[in-house]
Amino acid sequence: MIPFYESITHEMRSFINNGINFPLHLHQQLELIYIHKGEQDVTIADQRATLYEGDIAIIFPDCIHGFESKKEGTRSQLVLCDIRHTGIFMNKLLNYYPINPFLRKASLSDNIPYALTELCLEYQGDYNIAACTSFIQLILSRIFPLLELESKKDKFSTDYTSQIANYIHNKYKEPITLDDLAAYLGLSKYHVSHIFAKSFKMSFPKYLNSIRLNQAMARIETTRDSLLDICLEVGFNSQRTFNRIFKDIYHMTPGEYRKTLGHSKDT
């Protein structure tokens, strides 16, 4: 499994994973997930579906979502795109939300798997952003006629789950507590804990650490920064805590993970 990270700086990304596992999160990019083989559980806002080969889901900007893969051999393609490249679809992406974001193979145009394949080839090759933009807009031109939209303002005005994810996304580098989050939301700690149990399927500390760990893995993969600098940058208070939690989740230390990437700097 190749982790996918919340902090996205590329204008556009397209890559295939052997199954994706990532807790509920949100970001400002358009995202698509397409299943090449196997099956993938996808949660978008308050909906959850299992996608199978040839199915696709569209995730609008700032919409909470997460992934869970349980079947070996699954191959899922993720596409992330800055909305500046979505052309005439940008207004709808910013202001609306699909009532059903999950689309099945039988309803999809053959243009969609073609464009997705070409996006992967472009991203791995010369990366012509104009070509990538054309493929994204081709995909959206085939998807949008299949969607029934509603106002995003109406949909999410009282959505505490999205507010929690957004708060932690902005504050995970700081020593935040459940008390801080409850005060921000104007709710009791008990109410917030209940939201975590129901919507996130994990406790506040576990979710916070999962976000910090995934950000740390992104830094390990893309920089040569020291592991101490990385662990402090993403919000852990000590390298010992960072190492212990990392190993509990990924069954190897951060230094061992860096070595698997072929990086020489592992301290």
Q: Overview of this structure, please?
A:
- By secondary structure, the protein is an alpha+beta fold.
- It has two domains: 12-153, Sandwich (Jelly Rolls); 158-267, Orthogonal Bundle (Arc Repressor Mutant, subunit A), CATH 1.10.10.60.
- 44% of the residues lie in helices and 20% in strands.
- The protein is built from eleven helices and eleven strands.
- The strands form three sheets. Strands 1-8-3-6-10 form a five-stranded antiparallel sheet, with helices on one face. The chain has a four-stranded antiparallel sheet with strand order 2-7-4-5.
- Helix 2 (111-124) packs antiparallel against helix 3 (129-143), helix 6 (178-185) packs across helix 7 and helix 8 (204-222) crosses helix 9 (227-233).
- Residues 1-9 have low confidence and may be disordered.
Short précis:
The model is unreliable at 1-9 (pLDDT under 50). This protein has 267 residues and is α+β, with helices and mostly antiparallel strands. The protein is globular, with a radius of gyration of 19 Å.
Per DSSP E runs of 2 or more residues, the count of β-strands stands at 11
As residue ranges, the low-confidence spans are 1-9
In round numbers, the mean pLDDT is 87
- Tell me the radius of gyration: 19 Å
The ordered H/E elements are: EEEEEEEEHEEHHEHHHHHHHH
The best one-word shape is globular
CATH 2nd-level architecture of the largest domain: Sandwich
